[in-house]
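Message: Just now I want nothing more than another pair of eyes on a protein record. I am handing you a single protein, as its sequence and its fold in token form. As I understand it, each token names a local backbone shape. Take your time, and here it is.
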Amino acid sequence: MSNESDLSRIGISLPKNLLDRFDEILECRGYSSRSEGGIRDAIRNYITYYKWMSDVTGERQGVITMVYDHEHRGLLQVLTEIQHDYLNVIQSSLHSHVSHDRCVEIILLRGGDGKIIKDIAERLMSQKGGVESVKLTTIPIEE
């Protein structure tokens, strides 16, 4: 069985601006190297978030927070179509312009099946071009 002391080497390519921002955060947090802290922590957090997302079941109230470039060709239409597919779950949305090109959208959801809420978030996340981030937060609805 493998543990964290069994190391594997990987190589990745990143846009310079993304790597520069990552390095700034690592410096602020006091990490000695990219791999020692930042990348390992980021991967651990991603795994934890994925596991947490896998457990979204039952009746849920949720919020999706999304940041995207509204100038990206065709993106607004796709995002609108996705939301229209779930009119029975989406209660409300709030759209705000961060800058000329960037927008933040907050979508309030409530559904009898957490899987549907998770599906909405995953469909929004899968829109690579123009979507910077999508974050889902849910809580179970207790009777």
Observations:
- The chain has a mean pLDDT of 86.
- The chain is about 40% helix and 25% strand.
- Residues 34-54 form the longest helix (21 residues).
- The radius of gyration is 18 Å.
